[in-house]
Amino acid sequence: MAGPGGGSSDVQWCFSQVKGAIDDDVAEADIISTVEFNHTGELLATGDKGGRVVIFQQEPESKNQPQCRGEYNVYSTFQSHEPEFDYLKSLEIEEKINKIRWLPQKNAAQFLLSTNDKTIKLWKISERDKRPEGYNLKEEDGRYRDPNTVTTLRVPIFRPMDLMVEASPRRVFANAHTYHINSIAVNSDYETYLSADDLRINLWHLEITDRSFNIVDIKPANMEELTEVITAAEFHPNQCNTFVYSSSKGTIRMCDMRASALCDKHAKMFEEPEDPNNRSFFSEIISSISDVKFSHSGRYMMTRDYLSVKIWDLNMETRPVETYQVHEYLRSKLCSLYENDCIFDKFECCWNGNDSVVMTGSYNNFFRMFDRGYRQDVTLEASRENSKPRSVLKPRKVSTGGKRKKDEISVDSLDFNKKILHTAWHPLDNIIAVATTNNLYIFQEKLN
Amino acid sequence: MSGDNEETQAAEETSVDEKEVQEKMISPEKAEEAKLKARYPNLGNKPGGSDLLRKRLQKGQKYFDSGDYNMAKAKIKNKQLPTAAPEKTEITGDHIPTPQDLPQRKPSLVASKLAG
């Protein structure tokens, strides 16, 4: 049966590409920690635990193969962050890239922000396809000529060369976060951006690295009174004064920067009321929001907690307008998920280009799509077994009852080490990037 | 009279069983919570509260004291150190981190396998 996508009920997803090593022995540095398309979808960036960024570029569609969109090939790769040790606080600073955010393109070069726990960097990625030749004072290999041997003058000219893509750090935004940065978000004014850690949110100007404004501070005077932390933050896609931040208690606060310099008082608070009879030890932990994303339209926002995805209408704070269960069968496994720490896994979520479908990851390398209009959902799997070029992905099913049908997988057989935490949807087309632990899968809509 | 008591007792037990079954049906979460509390009776009553949060905020904390390190190095060379009075039964941790124990803090020199 076909799965949802793009607002119609008959989109089928095909395997397109897989990047990364095949062997099961995964080095920690190779664990993918973030995936992000740029604004046109032409570029796809990944960050990993080893502090490296790899950028893929989509090949232009070829006339020979109109039935599939261009493939993504490596465009640039560089070491964004390195491990550090803060001797003053005796704190190890991981080089893991927590988030990458692209800036919209303003000139020939591409810019992205990448962050680890403590430092945000602005990287410029530029192409060089010409080089000057015919210097008067230098040989072609760079050695300087003896000026006495120069008898004529010539004008150096630019000659084509093999394309070289260079990445250089243009700004380093450091020393503004005591706690660990979980989010960065570029403002729609394209001049400022925010960075959020567990307790504070700062506002930066892209050109200014030696200062930032603190706009949210939820640190209690007495740390014994700490009850919640900030888990994610995002700017509204077209209202440059509005941003939201989510908490470990399952609430989302919307703030308006025009109201005051310090946005500790929220303009709106989104929280679903909880049935006190159903409250358990796990309630708060599984209500913690791991990701918040505005819809492209700016009318809705989506939150991901441990078991579900919720869509909120920004005009209604009292409850979400839609709730989708990602893997409800895990509710009766919470005890063991707490013991193996999986209950703290932070899944992300994403919208498709026209906000009609949302996607999020699960365990066993499964990922889920929910079609909001047709009220359909599908479970697909990212695995090397389904990696024949252009093979259609078969929907997967987890059996919850006693009887397990053929092709279904039982809850106890799920591999909780194979988690899909990071997914991304092309801003315009039905192309998705799904990251397993150390591999990046690219799936495309089947075109006829 | 005793017959009546027995009957009431049996009726009570059945209703308790039913209630348990009902609870399990209503809330698998609560059943899981009971399981957890059975395994870890000392688990704090603050659900997911400050302890968890503070642990999260302290991620990455490591301690390296050069005094301890040098003492440990000396201990390896010279096994005879003055021992504490035998009355002291409290055992404190004696593992002092050495450079061999600390994970290597080298940056990745190898390129990402995604780019391979």
UniProtKB/TrEMBL annotation, chain A:
The record's section on SUPFAM superfamilies has: WD40 repeat-like
Please indicate if the UniProt record lists Amino-acid biosynthesis as a keyword: no
Q: Name one GO cellular component term.
A: protein phosphatase type 2A complex
Q: A single GO BP annotation from the record? A: blood vessel lumenization
Q: Which UniProt keywords apply?
A: Repeat, WD repeat
Signal sequence region: none
- InterPro entries for this protein: PP2A_PR55, PP2A_PR55_CS, WD40/YVTN_repeat-like_dom_sf, WD40_repeat_dom_sf, WD40_rpt
A molecular function annotated in GO for this UniProt entry is: protein phosphatase regulator activity
Q: Write out the ranges of the annotated region (Disordered).
A: 385-404
UniProt similarity note: Belongs to the phosphatase 2A regulatory subunit B family.
Tell me the subunit arrangement: PP2A consists of a common heterodimeric core enzyme, composed of a 36 kDa catalytic subunit (subunit C) and a 65 kDa constant regulatory subunit (PR65 or subunit A), that associates with a variety of regulatory subunits.
What's the protein name? Serine/threonine-protein phosphatase 2A 55 kDa regulatory subunit B
Q: Which organism is it from?
A: Amphiprion percula
TrEMBL record, chain B:
Classification via Pfam families? Endosulfine
Cellular compartments per GO CC: cytoplasm
Q: Subcellular localization, per the record?
A: Cytoplasm
Q: Where does the source fall among the domains of life?
A: Eukaryota
Basic and acidic residues bias locations: 16-36
Q: What is the role of the protein in this entry?
A: Protein phosphatase inhibitor that specifically inhibits protein phosphatase 2A (PP2A) during mitosis.
Name the record gives this protein: cAMP-regulated phosphoprotein 19b
